[in-house]
Amino acid sequence: MRIQVSNLSCLAFVCCLRQEDLEDVRNLCGANAALLRANPLGLLSIIFDHRARSWEAWVTRLWLQVNQIEGLTRSVPQDWLMKDPVSILQQSVGSTTLSPASAEPSRHHTMSQLTMDPMPTALTALELQDFESTPFHDLGNTEELLPRLYTTDTEISHGQNVMSFAIRYADFCLDAVNVVDSARMSVGLPPQTPGAKALVADRIRFTKSRCLALQDRFAEIRERHRSQINAVSLFPGSVRQPVLFPL
Questions:
Q1: How do residues 197-223 score in pLDDT, each as one tens digit?
Q2: Side-chain half-sphere of 140: how many Cα atoms within 13 Å?
Q3: Does any domain span residue 154?
Q4: Which residues contact 143 (CB under 8 A, 6 or more apart)?
Q5: Distance CA 99, CA 120 (A)
Q6: Is residue 5 included in any domain, yes or no?
Q7: Coil, strand or helix: which one is 243?
Q8: Per the structure, how many domains does the chain have?
Q9: Which of 46-55, 75-84, 115-124, 161-170 has the lowest mean pLDDT?
Q10: How far apart are CA 168 and CA 105, in angstroms?
Q11: Which pLDDT does position 126 carry in this prediction?
């Protein structure tokens, strides 16, 4: 990303692992053209917001996996359990994918079914389509269950590292906003207008606050998940005859 200090014109090359992500970013840039005209660093806030939505969906999928095991071991109250997570995801995914016409999709009614906590979570098809609830008779085999638990634990640990990066990235973006002002003033040009600067900085701070909440959620999920690993490891016989409703 290169910015011409004199007039704030910008040239940026954006690479994504998935074509769908690149198309989402392109569409969001079109929907936020006014932001980009006011401040080219708005591109950083758009990309950051897009990734945060994906991370929110990631946390949701992991939460559903942990919740399923908690139901198996009967370690949480009944009203905390998801009776049919797959059908809820199927109903919600189509209406909450990113689109230029809906930068903030309506999803609170869906999340009220997914969790008791008021954490807004974007449900994107690409992140959640792989979630499939496992029948209890399969989970009851501890020889297969423990490797699955360890695999999920590794993914949760990686998620915590990703959230640490996200917070550092937010700080980098905020520093970049100030660097542009410093560069302009160093050549005798006025700084960006307060409104143009705040337009980007406030969006970045808001997304950072979401990532801080996700970081806490990853930590919570990891503690709960490791409790399930301990329970299955110490008392393998207790999960062979599940009596809860099937997911």
A1: 999 999 999 999 999 999 999 999 999
A2: 11
A3: yes
A4: none
A5: 17
A6: no
A7: coil
A8: 1
A9: 115-124
A10: 26
A11: 44
